[in-house]
Amino acid sequence: MVEFGTEKDIVKEINETMKMIKLEKNNSTGIALYNYIGNLYSALSVIRGREVYPSKRKIFGSLNDYRRFVKITDFLMDRFNDNFIFYKDFHQEYLNDILVEIEDNFINTLDEEMATYSDESDYFGVNDFCLIFLDFCKSLGLEKFADEILKDGKIFCMTKGNGPDNYLGINLHNPLTGNSHILVHNFDYDLDSLFILVHETGHYYDLSEFDSSFKGTEYINYMFKSVYPEVMSKLFERLLLNFLIKNNIVKEKAIDKKIDAEILNHENILGAYILSLLGDGYLVKNRYMNLSNDRLRELITSGFVNMENLDVEVEYLNLNDNVYYAYGSIISLFLEDEVLEDGFNSSLMRRFMDIRSQEFNEKFIEGEELLSGKFSKIYQKRLEIIK
Q1: SS3 for 179?
Q2: Is 154 helix (H, G, I), strand (E, B) or coil?
Q3: Do 296 and 288 touch, CB atoms closer than 8 A?
């Protein structure tokens, strides 16, 4: 059985975090707690099915403190954009090579499989849902995480129709105490709910693996300046679908879900590549968002031989999300191959965990030889399971 968290738990966590903020002297930790409070209020909004706005005066205490928070978060977001611009040539070449290498496999395999979506039921029921989640975590040597998540009120269950339709899930993490909760919207003991829960479990595992010194500054760097916050969540998605298909658990639906996931992965890699084609001025403070679709197409024409079949719209581009999920999709594929062979103590996993909170540079990718040719071979091998 699942012991779900409640609205009362969220309110209690908000109140306790407010006390921490008033006592916290470290600026970075304070900023991290402000961010956490915002996430808690987002969760409360979903639970209540309406927007719940925090009192800025209650949280920040003074107008100056609020302005300082806005200034610092704006600075951090600008640093992410500046870093992307600095390494733009690398991103452009690397992402282009990935797209070129996988294009034939992506189109041929997925087009063929998409024609036959399954009508198999993917509703598990309470007991089977819990058993599958436990067995999946056990297969990775992560039983303790499964027990914590299922039995300690770590999951907040959103029933269908409660809250915004596009709200899938969020991992709520207190960087000071290390306490984490998972909110899953439209929770219904089916494959979609399991997939979202496992994605958020990836974040849960990721943040739990930092030692006690991982507070304030490193947390802020990881959440705002690194390109890697979605690697572990994408890895858990990949491992789950491999587990379900390999063990013939709603296999046809799991294959459908893998197809959908690979399409989304491809869209994010393509989105990040498109953004790398833009001039620096369009990336500063996300000015590309003010472009018309026609102007965007004009600016990126040099990157594509045939623009006629390329559906490019500004509203589908988001520098942070595209880059997070592009590199999450890429790095997680390399990690999946090693984790399936050597578990979470694989050499690549250890090195990734050491560098993941740092700002991007090409040394990790080049040093570990995480290059397009190798990616293509693993990609082709992983697609074999859907045939």
Answers
A1: coil
A2: coil
A3: yes
- Digit-coded pLDDT (tens) for 140-196: 999 888 888 888 778 887 655 444 445 578 898 888 888 888 988 778 899 999 999
Strand order across the beta sheet in which 180-184 lies: 155-157, 180-184, 169-173
The number of beta carbons lying within 10 Å of the beta carbon of residue 120 is 13
| 3-state SS assignment for residue 381 | helix
> 350: exposed, middle or buried (C-beta count within 10 Å: 0-12, 13-18, 19+)?
exposed
Q: Exposure of 239 by Cβ count < 10 A (0-12 exposed, 13-18 middle, 19+ buried)?
A: buried
Q: What is the DSSP string of 295-317?
A: HHHHHHGGG-S--TT----GGG-
Beta strands in 122-247 (DSSP E): 155-157, 169-173, 180-184
Rounded to whole angstroms, what are the CA distances from 96 to 54, 100, 283? 43, 6, 19
State which amino acid sits at residue 49: G
Q: Is 199 exposed, middle or buried (0-12, 13-18, 19+ CB in 10 A)?
A: buried
Rounded Cα distance between 108 and 111, Å, is 5
Tokens of residue 31, six digits: 């900023």
Residues 6+ apart with CB under 8 A from 60: 34, 66, 69
Beta strands in 168-324, from DSSP E residues, in sequence order: 169-173, 180-184
Q: Where are the domains of the chain?
A: 7-386
User: What pLDDT, in 10s, does the model give residues 209-239?
Assistant: 875 555 667 788 888 889 999 999 999 999 9
Per-residue exposure over 139-155, b if at least 16 CB sit within 10 Å of its own CB, e if not: bbebeebbebbbeeebb
CA distance 329 to 95: 12
What is d(CA 162, CA 186) in angstroms, rounded to the nearest whole number?
A: 8
DSSP code for 250:
S
Residue of 26, 328, 79, 322 whose CA lies nearest to 206:
328
pTM above 0.70, yes or no: yes
- Number of Cβ within a 10 Å radius of residue 335: 22
Using CA atoms, how far residue 173 sits from 39, 90, 154, 179, 346, in Å, is 9, 32, 11, 6, 26
378 class by beta-carbon count within 10 Å (0-12 exposed, 13-18 middle, 19+ buried): middle
